[in-house]
Predict the structure.
Amino acid sequence: MIVFLRRATAILILTSACCWSALAQNNFSIQPAHSGTWFNAEQSGHGLFIQVLEGGIVVTCWFVFDLDGNRAWLCGSGVIDGNQVLMNVNIVEGGAFPPLFDSEQINRIPWGTLLLIFQDCDNVLVEWVTEHPGFSSGSLDMQRLTGIAGLVCQPPPAVQGLVIPRTTAIVTANGMFQPGEWDQAATQTIFIRSDFQVTLYYQADDEFVYFAFENVGGPGDINLVNMVMADTLFPEIFINVNPPDGQAFGNDNHWFHASFQDCYQQGLFNVAIGCNFFLPDWQANNFPLASPGITEIRIAYSRLNITPEQTPAIGLLATMTSSLLGIMAYNNWPAGSDVSNPSSWETMVLPQPQ
C-alpha cells in the first residue's frame, strides 16, 4: 500500500478545461532524480508515481479516485521536453487480486492527457484534460514526497540581480505619493549634478511593475524645458525582457518616456512617433508636475508580453534625459550604463505570484 503523508501546504490552481497553462519552459530540465512519489499536502491520500527512464522517457501513474470515490489508476508515458512532459493517459481496469489475476482481463481505456511542468527539484504543476465519465479537467500543484537513494537533483540556475520588492498597495500613477503607496518600494539615486539628484523608486505585483521619479524638475522651472542648462530632465525607463542580452538594442527591449506626453517603442528609443497621452497597458502622469516633481509610471506585464513565471528577471535602465530636440543628455542608473547597450543594464528579479 502506498501512503501519502501530510507535509507542507500547497496551492490548488484551477484552469479551463480547454487550455494548457501559460507557463513556458525555463532553463530547468527534468532529471532522473525527479523519479519518486509526489503529492499535494492538502489532499493527502492520492498521488503520482514518476519514473524517469533512459532515452528521455517519463512513466507516470496517478493513484487517485473518480468523482464517485472509486479507485482509479491513470498511467501513461511521454518524452521529456525541457522542464515538462506531455503524455496520453489510460485508465486501467479489470484486474483481480492474485492468484485470480489474469492479464488478459486488463483493460487500458484512453482517459485523457496529462502535462507535468517541473518548477524545480521539489515542485511540479500537474495539468490534465479529460472527457472520461466520472472525471473533470483541471490542475494541481504537487510536491516531492519520496526520491530514489543516490540520485541528486540539480536545482535550476539561480537568477542573479537586484530584487524588485512585492507591493500590496494600489498605485495610481497620478504623480502624487499617497499614504502607503510606496512604503514597500526599494530606491536608487540618479546623480545628475552635485546639487541635483533624482530618487528612483521601484516595486511590482502580479500584474504591474511600478516606478517613481522624485525631484524630476531639479533646480529649474519644472514646467519649462531648459535644454542648455539641463535643469529640466524627463524620466525614461528601458526594459530588456531577455537578460542578459547582447549589446544591440533590439526587439527584446522596450522604451518608456514620460514628459508632456507618454512615448513608447519596442526595439527603438527616442522616437517621438510613438507618443500619445493614453497608451494601453502602461500609464504615467505628465508635465506640468506639481512640487516636488514626481513622475509615477505603471507598466503592465502584458505590455512587455511576459509573466513573472516565464520571465523571472528583466534588464532595467532608468534615466533622466533631455534627449529631445537633438540634444542628447542621458543621466543613467545604473551609473556607467548605456541606453543603446542592454548588456550594461541592471538585472532585476521580479517577485513571483503568490
The first strand starts at residue 36 and ends at 39.
